[in-house]
Amino acid sequence: EKPGMKPGSIGSGMGTSRGLEAALQQVRVGVTRSGKKGKTVTVIDGLDPGGGVEEAKELIQKFKKVLGTGGSLAENGAMSFQGDNAALLVDMLVAMGYKAAKQTGGLGGKK
To answer: Which sign does the torsion angle of CA 100, 63, 73, 43 carry?
Structure first.
């Protein structure tokens, strides 16, 4: 976790989902502009795909391909994608078995 960052805030990383099965993970998808030079970024927190960093990187590649945008993995496990793709990412995560995935905060509602 980043120093000074509250658990559950956008960009807080994997957190309490580490090691849990997909259906039990409290996955949060939020949209932010903070610290991104005014650019809109969608961030996935609380997601542990299992299998470590390699598995997370593979998942990011899949999401990037579907979204058609850039994306990255932070050291704390937070996944970031360019643009406001929260609603689509939540739908994708639920379809993958992350039943508790929810959209938090955000700059707008569902499209």
So the answer is: negative
